[in-house]
Write a structure and sequence with these properties.
It contains 3 helices and no strands. The longest helix is centred in the middle third of the chain and has 26 residues. The protein is mostly helical and about 80 residues long. About 10% of the residues are buried. Helix content is about 65%, strand content about 0%.
Length: about 80
């Protein structure tokens, strides 16, 4: 996922789906489940991008697939700004 356009599409499209769900039926339990699933999904997509770009190497590759384990502020520039 080295292409920044594909990355932004992958992280913003689920938000559009969640917003569409809020406009439709209003079941708060399903909304919370969707938000939790999105947070887990973001952990995987961010980790995949860091590995593909070569920022995370070696034995620490498995750590990026654990949701909420890596500090996204440390890798902010590599994730969101650099191509």
């Amino acid at each position: 996922m080295k292409n920044i356009f594909i990355y932004y599409l992958a992280i913003l499209l689920p938000i559009a789906f969640i917003a569409w769900y809020v406009v439709g039926p209003h079941d708060p339990v399903i909304f919370v489940v969707l938000l939790f699933c999105y947070c887990v999904f973001r952990g995987f997509t961010d980790g995949k991008r860091l590995i593909d770009k070569g920022v995370v190497k070696g034995e620490s590759k498995w750590k990026v697939y654990i949701p909420f384990y890596i500090n996204h502020l440390t890798y902010f520039r590599e994730l969101y700004l650099k191509r």
